[in-house]
């Protein structure tokens, strides 16, 4: 990933927002979750993926017991 000069362009094309997530994008989500604005949010998964999962195939992973 770090050595791929086409990483940003290829992920930008695959992501509805047009670019891969930045460190700031992930940090802002984490800061929101620890803020008072998120005080009533419990047990949720917050996807910071620029809409990728809403437009891309995600396999149904079977996790063994």
Explain this structure to me?
The protein has about 60 residues and is an all-alpha fold. The chain has a single domain, classed as Helicase, Ruva Protein, domain 3. About 35% of the residues lie in helices and about 0% in strands. The longest helix has 11 residues. About 0% of the residues are buried.
Rg calculated over all Cα atoms = 15 Å
- Give the amount of beta strand, in percent: under 5%
Number of strands: 0
Task: Report the mean per-residue pLDDT as an integer.
Answer: 85
Shape: extended
Describe the largest sheet.
Answer: none
Q: So what's the oligomer here?
A: single chain
Terminal-residue CA separation: 33 Å
In short:
The chain is an all-alpha fold and 65 residues long.
Structural descriptors:
65 residues, Helicase, Ruva Protein, domain 3, extended, mainly alpha, single chain
Set down the secondary structure blueprint.
Blueprint lengths: L6 H8 L8 H11 L18 H4 L10
């Amino acid at each position: 990933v770090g050595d791929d000069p086409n990483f940003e362009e290829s992920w930008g094309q695959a992501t509805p927002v047009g670019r891969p997530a930045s460190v700031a994008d992930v940090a802002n989500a984490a800061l929101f979750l620890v803020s008072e604005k998120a005080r009533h949010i419990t047990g949720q998964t917050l996807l910071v993926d620029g809409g990728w999962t809403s437009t891309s195939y995600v396999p149904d992973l079977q996790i063994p017991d």
